[in-house]
Specification:
By secondary structure, this protein is mainly α. Helices cover 78% and strands 2% of the residues. The protein has twelve helices and three strands; from the N terminus they run αβααβαααβαααααα. Strands 2-1-3 form a three-stranded mixed sheet. Helix 2 runs parallel beside helix 10.
Length: 342
């Protein structure tokens, strides 16, 4: 295909189908997705505000939780509004550039979340296995550097993939049988050999997920070994409870991601709508559950959120400035009258 024809073809928009075979039920299907998005916005925003406003939460572990909240908000906002547009308004068209920008955000922040989960496992390892050096190893600056490194790693490995994908000619059917620009569904529309991009994405996914999961497993193996050495059963249970919510998020992230990926690669005889629903749930449900499992479940963040709500309640019930001036003026007149009578 000539360069001119390729550029003309690649300037055309794609069309999203939503959930194939369930188009008549899109309005009903949109209700749980809308609910999960609202809860994602509320839960993660409250966690971010609590950590931002409560100085007692300005510690590495809460900075990592804030990073997860930002990732979840970015994840959901990149996917759900367009998905709801397809379900509610039948707004199926998505521009060529917009499609790959959405794909870039999904894959980049998947890699970033994997890096943050690895950093959190390192945080728990130092806190439990080497607590005396915790404050010297994990400072606020080093925590922020870990987050920025995870972001740079995710963007760095996904930018070449996006360059490979956007340079492919898309001259086949422009219909994507999905609710968002899912990588494999888009690549199937290319009319050139995508083996280079497929090989690159496979290598990157294997290295990122494989390396991070190995180090996370090693960290928790060392944590479990140290916890079993504690003399008190109460201390062992407390340490395990501290790590339990983190392990839940790790399992949900990696198991859900692998399940979604393998269902896209191999149908296993399942209907396409099942594959699409699993992929949609993977991108929408964990961002809603993360603040419940990890953030709001922690006592310190619960207290921070309660302080935030109490502060808002006090500010709502406080008299307006003009009213306070009038009350103060009235108090001054009364005091003067008392002095005069005295």
């Amino acid at each position: 295909m000539s360069t001119a024809n390729r550029s003309n073809t690649n300037s055309l928009p794609f069309l999203l189908t939503g959930i194939p075979g369930l188009e008549a039920l899109h309005m009903w299907i949109s209700i749980p997705f809308c609910f999960t998005y609202i809860m994602t916005l509320l839960g993660n925003s409250m966690v971010l505000l609590a950590v931002r406003l409560d100085k007692s939460l300005h510690e590495p572990v809460y900075y990592f939780i804030s990073m997860l909240a930002v990732i979840d908000l970015t994840f959901s906002t990149a996917v759900v509004p367009k998905m709801l547009g397809v379900f509610w308004l039948d707004s199926r068209e998505i521009g060529f550039e917009a499609c790959f920008i959405q794909m870039f955000f999904i894959h980049t922040f998947t890699a970033v979340e994997s890096g943050v989960l690895l950093a959190m496992s390192f945080d728990r390892y130092i806190a439990i296995c080497n607590p005396l050096r915790y404050n010297t190893i994990l400072t606020s600056s080093s925590t922020i550097q870990m987050g920025l490194l995870s972001l740079a790693r995710g963007a760095g490995v996904m930018t070449p993939l996006m360059c490979l994908l956007t340079n492919l000619p898309y001259c086949k059917n422009r219909v994507i049988p999905h609710s968002y620009c899912e990588h494999m569904a888009v690549v199937e529309l290319a009319c050139a050999d995508p083996s280079v991009s497929d090989l690159y994405s496979l290598i990157v996914a294997t290295l990122l997920v494989g390396t991070d999961s190995v180090f996370i497993t090693f960290s928790y193996g060392m944590i479990l070994k140290s916890v079993m050495r504690l003399p008190s059963q109460e201390a062992r249970l407390k340490a395990l409870r501290t790590c339990g919510s983190h392990v839940s998020i790790i399992l949900m992230f990696y198991v859900g991601g692998l399940l979604s990926m393998y269902l896209q690669m191999f149908s296993f005889g399942l209907a396409p709508r099942i594959q699409v629903l699993v992929a949609d749930l993977y991108l929408t449900v964990p961002p809603m559950l993360n603040p419940l499992i990890y953030g709001i479940k922690m006592k310190q963040i619960q207290e921070g959120i309660f302080k935030l709500l109490q502060r808002q309640e006090r500010s709502r019930n406080a008299p307006a400035p003009a009213q306070r001036v009038r009350e103060g003026h009235g108090c001054t007149l009364r005091c003067r009258g008392v002095r005069a009578s005295g």
